[in-house]
Amino acid sequence: MVSRELRKIALERIERLMDFAKKHALERPEIARQAVLLAMRIAQKARLRIPRRYRLMYCRKCGTPIWSPNTFTIRIRSRRSTHITIRCNNCGYIKRMLVKKKDRSRK
Ligand SMILES: [Zn+2]
């Protein structure tokens, strides 16, 4: 079992690494990517989820942070339901996100 205390420490490290990645993504994208990968590994070890505010900000597959230039292609599609696709230009991973409409009718 992973203790609560350990999880807290792990979470703090993840936050610090993500902030680090954000800061360095522009000038040193490779170092930023390493930081994200490390954060992912820490999360895995501590059986934590990366906080939601960070989860959309990197490629789940290769760790490339979204702040690096020219790393992601973002498109909005609106067949049937509107969703955003984010494609990682580093590894080709495609992430899809549904865009929820504020529509209360059932159809
Ligand atoms: Zn990727």
Describe the protein:
This protein is of the alpha+beta class and 107 residues long. It has one domain (4-98): Single alpha-helices involved in coiled-coils or other helix-helix interfaces. Helices cover 39% and strands 16% of the residues. It has three helices and three strands. The protein has helices spanning 4-24, 29-45, 52-55, and strands spanning 72-77, 83-88, 94-98. The protein has a three-stranded antiparallel beta sheet with strand order 1-2-3, with no helix packed on it. β1 (72-77) and β2 form a beta hairpin. α1 runs antiparallel to α2 (29-45). The radius of gyration is 16 Å and the shape is globular. The structure holds zinc ion. Residues 59, 61-62, 64, 88, 90-91, 93 line the site of zinc ion (ZN).
SSE topology:
Layout: H1 4-24, H2 29-45, H3 52-55, E1 72-77, E2 83-88, E3 94-98
Antiparallel strand pairs: 1-2, 2-3
Helix pairs in contact: 1-2
Short description, anyone?
The protein has one domain: Immunoglobulin FC, subunit C (Single alpha-helices involved in coiled-coils or other helix-helix interfaces, Up-down Bundle), CATH 1.20.5. It has 3 helices and 3 strands; from the N terminus they run αααβββ.
Full CATH superfamily name: Immunoglobulin FC, subunit C
Largest sheet: number of strands, sense, barrel closure: 3 strands, antiparallel
Present as ligands are: zinc ion
Radius of gyration, CA atoms, in whole angstroms: 16 Å
Please give the CATH class: Mainly Alpha
Please state the average pLDDT score. 89
Query: What is the level-2 CATH architecture name?
Result: Up-down Bundle
Estimate nothing, just give the exact number of structural domains: 1
SSE order: HHHEEE
> What coarse outline follows from CA principal-axis ratios?
globular
Q: Structural class, judged by helices and strands? A: alpha+beta
Oligomer: single chain
- Tally of helical segments: 3
The proportion of residues in beta strands is: 15-25%
Poorly predicted residue ranges? none
Strand numbers in spatial order across the main sheet: 1-2-3
- Strand tally is 3
The percentage helix is 25-40%
Find the CATH topology: Single alpha-helices involved in coiled-coils or other helix-helix interfaces
N-to-C span: 46 Å
